[in-house]
Specification:
The complex is a heterodimer of chains A (114) and B (115). With 114 residues, chain A is mainly β. Chain A has no helices and twelve strands. In chain A, strands 2, 5, 6, 10, 11 and 12 form a six-stranded mixed sheet that branches. In chain A, strands 3-9-8-7 form a four-stranded antiparallel sheet, with no helix packed on it. Chain B contains no helices and eleven strands. The chains are: A mainly beta (114), B mainly beta (115). The interface between A and B is medium-sized, with 23 and 30 residues.
Chain lengths: 114, 115
């Protein structure tokens, strides 16, 4: 079974600074998908970014980018120019693709200091 | 853009009662997933359906059942409710039948409280 580990229960960053959230995973598959989801206090699950394992290029979405290291099974999220609206719980998630369910990490609570 | 719709948004039930949660996927999405998220926990995958057939199964209790209908909406039926079933239940949808479209988009969730 696949596992996802987020070793940082909580992170704090100053507004406008850069922060990196860590995620490692374990799988025996060669093709899979990785995601970062954001869950603000409203508890809505919002997709932040996705990465296909077969792509070597790291995904980027505006201020959000990932560092995907397939051999190390590492998938970190970098948030640049942090904004107050970025404050939320961030979940790293793994999918084998198709209709497979997501396996989530325990989450990292991100605090933005004004 | 249209999103995943879940109803009801809030539900209060007594122990041993039955509850039915509904999910309407994003138009043209063929796959529906159900998740349970307890307080302070990460979402746990329950079950998924692709083209109206059960596809993947997670930690869904035997007291729960689900199905996907011809219009692709899905219902999660929960019987003999227990206090521990109190949680936020998410439905997500994707166009998993299309290569590269496996991204799951989540609905707002149904908050279930069992008293």
């Amino acid at each position: 079974a696949q596992t996802v580990t987020q070793s940082q229960p909580e992170m704090s960053v100053q507004e406008a600074e850069t922060v990196t959230l860590s995620c490692t995973y374990d799988t025996s598959e060669s093709d899979y998908y990785l995601f970062w989801y954001k869950q603000p206090p409203s508890r809505q699950m919002i997709l932040v970014i996705r990465q296909e394992a077969y792509k070597q290029q790291n995904a980027t979405e505006n201020r959000f980018s990932v560092n995907f290291q397939k051999a190390a099974k590492s998938f970190s999220l970098k948030i640049s120019d942090s904004q107050l609206g970025d404050a939320a719980m961030y979940f790293c998630a793994y999918s084998g693709g198709g209709a497979d369910g997501l396996t989530f990490g325990k989450g990292t609570h991100l605090i933005i200091q004004p | 853009a249209a999103g995943v719709i879940q109803s009801p948004r809030h539900l209060i039930k007594e122990k041993r009662e039955t509850a039915t949660l509904k999910c309407y996927p994003i138009p043209r999405h063929d796959t529906v997933y159900w998740y349970q998220q307890g307080p302070g926990q990460d979402p746990q995958f329950l079950i998924s359906f692709y083209e109206k057939m059960q596809s993947d199964k997670g930690s869904i209790p035997d007291r729960f059942s689900a199905q996907q209908f011809s219009d692709y909406h899905s219902e999660l039926n929960m019987s003999s409710l227990e206090l521990g079933d109190s949680a936020l239940y998410f439905c997500a949808s994707s166009a998993a039948g299309l290569a590269g479209e496996e991204t799951q988009y989540f609905g707002p969730g149904t908050r279930l409280l069992v008293l």
